[in-house]
Amino acid sequence: MSAEADLHTVRDFLRYAISRFNAAELGFGHGTTTALDEAAFIILEALHLPVDELDPWLDCRLTGGERARLAGLIEERCRTRRPAAYLMGRTYIRGVPFKSDERAIVPRSFIGELLAGDLFGGEGFALVPEPEAIGRVLDLCTGSGCLAILAAMLFKNAEVDAVDLSPEALSLAAENVALHEMEGRVRLHQGDLFAPLKGRRYDLIITNPPYVDAKTCAALPPEHRHEPMLAFAGGPDGLDIVRRILEEAPKHLARDGGLICEIGTDREILEAEYPHLPFLWLDTEDSEGEVFWLAATDFAAAR
Asked: Which GO biological process annotations does it have (predicted)?
């Protein structure tokens, strides 16, 4: 008997998917971190249900067509090792949907969580006390455009420039900009980091650049190999592009501006190489010391 004939409820398919994913030794890390979360996302998204509400649907019986679709997706995930976001053509950051396919890295970033937190307009200590005062934002290495769009949502008065080297990634970013009706506020630029910006200055620069070192790139799990290697490769120690950003950012920051950058787990390398820069490390629910903040005044004081 096939899975679609034996399984009847959401709970049945959830259990089956987890068992299949574990047996296939799948890798995660594209918005989910466990077989349970991955299975729940695929099932709920395929059934057009809210992806953050599993319990209400667990004992719902499925139609024959729904069972066939779920069984096919579960087997395809195991057979191809494609990330779930690519299988579904869609993923979410903090509940905000984004189109996703092989043109760009699957949308994910600790910066997305930080933008939704109290550091931007919250009570008490805040990197940006008044989000409405932000007039220009730059998103470097924008990929799918997700962080540029999230920034436009948060900073209501800002114009956002988003840059990527890959024309393919920018074509996907354009679809996401259109999806969120941001064409009037998010402008896409093809080029190498700051090159297409002609000396513009910004109140905020956000960036999730390639930061994977060469050894790790060579050993990436199959799921990650479906993504463009350009989005990972950061040179021998992973920080070549981060160094370029640190070198060029001061020329593109407004006097009271700041830079927020995700770099992975190589904090010690940066701190040793740039002892004059007072990196402020920003932790999230799932990361510690992988994102830093530097104000324009920090760069000026270090000269």
From this structure: methylation
pTM of the model: 0.93
pLDDT score of 30 more than 80: yes
DSSP letter at 170 equals H
Domains contained in the chain, number:
2
pLDDT digits (tens, 9 = 90+) for 278-291: 999 998 888 888 99
CA distance 234 to 240: 6
Angle at 287 between CA 282 and CA 290, to 5 degrees: 55
Of 54, 35, 41, 26, the residue nearest 88 (C-alpha): 41
CA–CA distance, 285 with 249 (Å, rounded to integer): 27
CB of 213 closer than 8 Å to CB of 234:
yes
Q: Which residue type occupies 141?
A: C
Rounded CA gap, 262 and 106, in Å? Answer: 15
Q: Pick from 300, 263, 262: which is nearest to 278 by CA?
A: 300
For the chain, give the percent of residues with pLDDT over 70.
Answer: 99
> Is residue 62 domain-shared with residue 188, that is, in the same domain?
no
Residue partners of 76: CB distance under 8 A and separation at least 6: 82, 87
Its domain, for residue 270, covers: 95-301
